[in-house]
Design a protein that fits this description.
The chain has 3 domains: about 55 residues, no CATH class; about 40 residues, no CATH class; about 55 residues. It is an alpha+beta fold and about 150 residues long. About 5% of the residues have low confidence. The chain is flat and about 80 Å long. A 4-stranded antiparallel sheet has the order 3-4-5-6, with no helix packed on it. A two-stranded antiparallel sheet has the order 1-2.
Length: about 150
């Protein structure tokens, strides 16, 4: 039986905002799911997979005082000594783990995704504005050149 968020699929479909009440309306016929009801389940799973990939990515990296510090999106921090320092040998690796809950990680992921989407949404506008500014500057340069040539004769 398929499970979503600790519930069986039928219960999840009925409590996830769908208007289904009976099995036939939920699309459960002989254990199969109609495609229209399946999209919510697929979207939920897609977001979970993206979140898991995002958690394993590097948030930032700092190299200072003989150590390399790599901070991941899930809060884990990996340290590596680049020289003998404070009792640590060169090449030694140690980890620090955060106490972030799944809710905190999901909130950070959604915030990050919203920023990423809005950044891409506005990027072409910025490129277009830059292109227009360059065209204006080029036309001014050409007019100025003509004016200087005209006055120079």
């Amino acid at each position: 039986m398929l499970e979503v968020g600790g519930m069986d699929l039928k219960t999840w479909l009925m409590t996830s905002g769908t208007t289904c009440v009976r099995e036939s309306e939920a699309g459960l016929v002989g254990g199969s799911i109609k495609m229209t009801q399946y999209t919510a389940l697929v979207e939920h799973q897609r977001i979970q997979m993206l979140k898991e990939i995002w958690e394993r990515k590097v948030n930032y990296l700092v190299a200072e005082n003989g150590t390399i510090k790599i901070v991941y999106n899930n809060g884990k921090i990996r340290y590596q000594a680049t020289r003998d320092l404070n009792g640590r040998k060169e090449g030694q690796v140690w980890w620090e783990y955060s106490n972030k809950t799944n809710e905190q990680l999901e909130g950070e992921f959604r915030h990050n995704e919203a920023d990423r989407v809005s950044q891409f949404k506005h990027a072409p506008v910025r490129d277009l504005q830059r292109e227009q500014e360059l065209k204006k500057a080029e036309s001014l340069r050409i007019r100025l050149g003509r004016w200087l040539l005209k006055d120079g004769k």
